[in-house]
Input
Amino acid sequence: MKVFELKGSLRTDLGKKANKALRKEEMVPCEVYGGGENIHFAINEKVLGKLLFTPDVYVINADIEGKKFSCVLRDVQYHPVNDKALHADFYQVFEDKAFEVELPIRVEGFAIGVQSGGKLAVISRKLKVKGLMADLPENLLVKVSHLGLGKSIQVGELTYDNLELLNSKKSVVVQVKLTRAARAAAMAAK
Output
């Protein structure tokens, strides 16, 4: 997985007024949990934006006033009108302990159904997996060369070394849909 370096400052004042004052200074209140005691800190809005607005998933090496730890972004709350990040939650991870994270999928191949006039539809852009930090890839590869018209790949059909897929086994990841042109060609052939 890719690594993101993050520097933040500890927060001692907690609550609505303190958080509102932080946001006026273009800082986002954050919290790290999962390593025993929760750590409250704040980071610059623009730095968090570099982490949020990307399709990649990062292991974050955080430095909060001398305290260093690894974590992953777990949840972000946004303002309902202007879509600014209001609060971010991070989960502390360890080399020897498995954790859950959503990884993006990467489709590879030219499906047989697409060659026949169908359209490839990616239904799930990310899948939730559980594994050790050393075993986590940057993305999950899904090969679609064998997919025919109207066929799909479900989560239960995918396997990856040292990773456990946590999505429902019946969830569709990718499928080849019939287009109007393909239906018309099939009807004309009859």
Remarks:
- The longest strand covers residues 67-78.
- The chain has a mean pLDDT of 85.
- The helical segments are 16-24, 45-52, 112-115, 180-189.
- Residues 180-189 form the longest helix (10 residues).
